[in-house]
Design brief:
The strands form ten sheets. Strands 34, 35, 40, 41, 42, 43, 44 and 47 form an eight-stranded antiparallel β-sheet that branches. The chain starts with 35 loop residues before the first helix and ends with a strand. The chain is an alpha+beta fold. 16% of the residues lie in helices and 31% in strands. Helix 9 runs parallel beside helix 12 and helix 13 crosses helix 14.
Amino acid sequence: MHLPRPSWRSRATWTAVSLSSAAALLFSPLPALADDARSVDSAKVDAALASAVREGGEAAFFVVLEDRADLSAARGKKAHGARAKAAYGALREHARVNQRSLTAFLDDEKVGHQDFWIADVVRVEGDAELVAKLAARSDVAELVKERQYELDEIEQAGPAGTVATAEDTAPEWGIADVKADQVWEQYDNRGEGIVIANVDSGVQFDHPDLVSNYRGNKGDGTFSHDYNWFDATGECPTSGVPCDNNGHGTHTMGTMAGANGIGVAPKAKWIAAKGCETDQCTDSFLLAAGQWILAPTDGDGLNPKPELAPNIVNNSWGGGHTTFYQDIVEAWNAAGIFEAFAAGNKGNGTACSTSEAPGSQAPSYGVGAYDSNGKIANFSGFGPSRVDGSMKPNIAAPGVSIRSTWPGSAYNTINGTSMATPHVAGATALLWSAAPSLIGDIDATRAFLNQGARNVEDTRCGGTAEANNIWGEGKLDILASVDKAPHTAVTVSGKVTDKATGAALPGISIKVTGATTGTRIVSTGSDGSYRVPMDPGTYDFALSGYGYAPEQLTGVELAAGQPLVQDIALDAVASHPVTGTVLDVTGKPLAKATVEVTGVPVDAVRTGTGGTFTLPKVAEGGYTLTVTPTEPVLCNGISRTSLTVDGTETRTVRLPARTDRYGNSCTPATYSWIKGANSVPLSGDEDAKTVQLPFPVRLYGVAYSGASVTTNGLVNFLQPRLGDYTNTALPAAGQPNGIVAPFWDDLTLDRRSSVQTATTGKAGGRKFAIVWNQAVLVSDNSRVTFEAVFDEATGDMTFQYQSVPGNGASATVGIEDQSGSDALQYSFDEAVLGNGSAIRIAQGAK
């Protein structure tokens, strides 16, 4: 008889149940209390968490630590990249030091944890006993239950699903109302050189009105999503490729940066972080997205580059009256990243204090909504803030009947403060492009937005005609703000052409770098033209594009009041074939692997039966050659090597061992069976027993002296568990976490079955085996024999398979960390295991 199926196993990808404050409210340390209930009810524990863990319950929650990183050094830097790097460095180092004692305690308690640096919080799951212990720690400021925010509810205002066409390029009513189109005309400015982002439900990156200024667009028909897209939720069907399973994020991005009259700043570059699963945004995903905004990573979540952080980030989500995300907002601001938040749709047209967090928090720039008749929307959140009493919203923008981009290369017309907020984010891109001296100066930027706003006298919730709790500073007027801003910028413009033919070259990247102002990047349009406003100073220009030799212009002087026209002709380069052979991780030829020159318009090819490939025509230049194994990938990793083409090139590429983020790697191993010697008293359908280990075994950097062994082919290092008969893909945030899975499936043990252990070798070089003999697969009553072997000398783990009917077609094989956020999965429901085979997992050292 099976145990009841756990509700959290209803899907392989875990969806959290909640979200709340992760920002710090500093409390005095409390002494340890003898009674768990008293500790749970202490001032350090929020009411929702206390309720959840009472009477034996468990909950996911955040441990908020005392103390905050010193970000003053970041605030003191001028260049965008330098500020972001300084903020990232200070936050990471502070979290590393400040969390050390807490994470050591959690490891000792066998509690899995997910650590964040942008808010210095640690996510855990546990019961009243754990809450009591953590509340008693002097370094803990607050314990907060994990909850969810909702995206602003989409209030349909018009027909959805119209396929995108270019029949009407007149600006939408909201664009005209904030006078963005007048900024385009009077200042010839459309947001050039500014990078904008959103934390939302995702974006259709190839929508016709968004594709041209997506930062991942290489300009030649290819895309690079590294550092330009991040899916914190894992919901997108193709890993590393942008998606939007709701529509909300595509809509807000269109209002910020869409072409053809849809967006406020149609020449700004954009990137995006998916922090919302669909219409809900779980705080662990939002925290991960917030970190990525400050320090974007590659597609594997590695190699962060804060210098690639966006200038502006839009947040059209929120809920409640908490201080959640406040630390993140302040970190962004310290890094010079301007943020805009929706004030929320909980208004009713009359009640005060209906704005919601994070838009209602004092550090956030909150946005209310009005309609095309100039009337405040009845759903728009009013102030004063219930969080801190501050005036909210800060400003108001068009938010009723807003037409913008929608997934499926379509449009949709909807309502919400979500629709108002991207008007402000896009307007800030216009302001910063026109007045680059303001880039990163959050206070001055807010002041110019406020000064340009058109006052609306409405003091029924307090305030004055100039600034009140209905309209904030008034209606957004970006033309007035740009008029008032410093007009010191020098515009550099021109056309890039082919030197031999004179043909215009679209999609050429132009990187402009100054010693004190950092780097701004623009791309040439379809006619080869470019435009970028810069502060007076000395700059280096770097031009690059596929099929053309890179061009460098150094020491270009830009003087105040003297626009520079700079036409540039590039030399085309020759092309040559690139051939070679791909070998798998063991050195054998690998067929069907995909070989491509990353980010250039050269068609990818597949290797043949002997692992050979030919890319017939690659232009001279320096590139990255990427080789990706076909499914099932098993232990084959992705190879990325530098490629310099200056003639015919021949390569032999051996794929590396696949790794997880921690650095654990797997390789096929030599089969060497260890026979079990000592019985583990397991029996029946669902059973678990704890065994003592003869030497410490490390899993993701944590050493353990004991582990729980289950009938279902799992070794649990955190806690004994029953009922885990439904195997899932790894990683999965739901329990079980902190596992070694040599063969996780629905298994049972009868009289012919057994689980045994054995220890071989001498101290320092011992091996410890856990052996499942003749375990019964519930699905078809066949029998499987396998083992997990732990090596004292190397720390390696080896999975060995003596007899595997069905070749593991319904099993999960791999390891997962203690928080369920990282894993090295060899297989999931794939028939890839053979009799007499072995897989070795080498421990990482991250």
